Amino acid sequence: MNEFVRLILIVFILGFQYFLSSRNNFYWGGLIPVAFVITMAYFIIAGNSGMLSSLLITLVGLLFLVGEWKKGRKDLQKKREKELNKMRTQDI
User: Fewest 10 Å CB contacts: which of 2, 61, 73, 80?
Assistant: First the structure.
């Protein structure tokens, strides 16, 4: 796969992870990390790649995905707080 296509794919996945994480139900944000871990476990079990490199890629990828999940949840909380403040100011 072309390096440019890989980069675009990674950016798309991280953007989609952020989008899912910023939804009201926080379980949506867990879909991509769970799918990623299952996919990497399959690659490790099938022996398609080296054990150490696959584990390292899994850990780093999971850190990025969970980081996006936390960022999405934090931004959703800020958005909710902003809406509440707007509602409070209109009530006064």
Answer: 2
